TrEMBL record:
Superkingdom of origin: Bacteria
The organism's taxonomic lineage, starting at the top: Bacteria, Pseudomonadati, Pseudomonadota, Candidatius Mariprofundia, Mariprofundales
NCBIfam families named in the record: PRK11789.1
Record-linked PANTHER family: 1,6-ANHYDRO-N-ACETYLMURAMYL-L-ALANINE AMIDASE AMPD (PTHR30417:SF4), N-ACETYLMURAMOYL-L-ALANINE AMIDASE AMID (PTHR30417)
Example GO BP: peptidoglycan turnover
Location of the N-acetylmuramoyl-L-alanine amidase domain: 6-157
Stated name of the protein: 1,6-anhydro-N-acetylmuramyl-L-alanine amidase AmpD
Length: 180
């Protein structure tokens, strides 16, 4: 796993229990799966003049804890105990502000192209490592962005096969990933 540090993060509220993982999908520009622009966005270095579709990203400050590329490469942008800015206006189980108590995992993808076997495997590995670190996270505490921001967000979308992910997650009993 490699690390790039995002400036788009801050401290979680004192005493916050991390008990949720939110899965996302991202492609920049839309339909393209090169991680370069995603990394630039999350590190605050995106040149919004590089692509006409980036105009509405000008000044946007977003991040996730992890990005899982199409090859399965995992990059960590924010330490797990810090708050990444991934969920925006969100609610889960009656609690607002999911960024406060969740870990965000972005998968490079969109609604048109299926996710890769490597992504299912690596997302499951990261989730299992997080579940070991934060025992209060159970499989039913792994949700999609669309679940915490319904009507506002679509991801990870219809291309993410939750049953396939569940099988991948159940095959991993222990995971020794070094997470920040």
């Amino acid at each position: 796993m490699r690390t790039l540090v995002s400036p788009h993060r801050n401290e979680r509220p004192a005493g916050t229990l991390i008990d949720l993982i939110v899965l996302h999908a991202i492609s920049l520009p839309d339909g393209q799966f090169d991680e370069h622009y995603i990394e630039a966005l999350f590190t605050g270095c995106l040149d919004c003049r590089a692509e006409p579709s980036f105009a509405d990203l000008e000044g946007l400050k977003v991040s996730a804890h992890f990005v899982v590329g199409r090859s399965g490469r995992v990059t960590q942008f924010v330490a797990c105990d810090e708050r990444a800015w991934h969920a925006g206006v969100s609610t889960w189980n009656g609690r607002d502000g999911c960024n406060d108590f969740s870990i965000g995992i972005e998968m490079v993808g969109d609604e048109r192209v299926p996710f890769t076997q490597a992504q299912y495997r690596e997302v499951a590995r990261v989730c299992r490592a997080l579940m070991q670190r934060y025992p209060q996270i159970t499989p039913d505490h792994i949700v999609g962005h669309q679940d915490v921001a319904p009507g506002r967000k679509w991801d990870p979308g219809r291309q993410w096969d939750w049953q396939r992910f569940s099988r991948s997650l159940s095959r991993i009993k222990n995971c020794k990933l070094e997470l920040l």
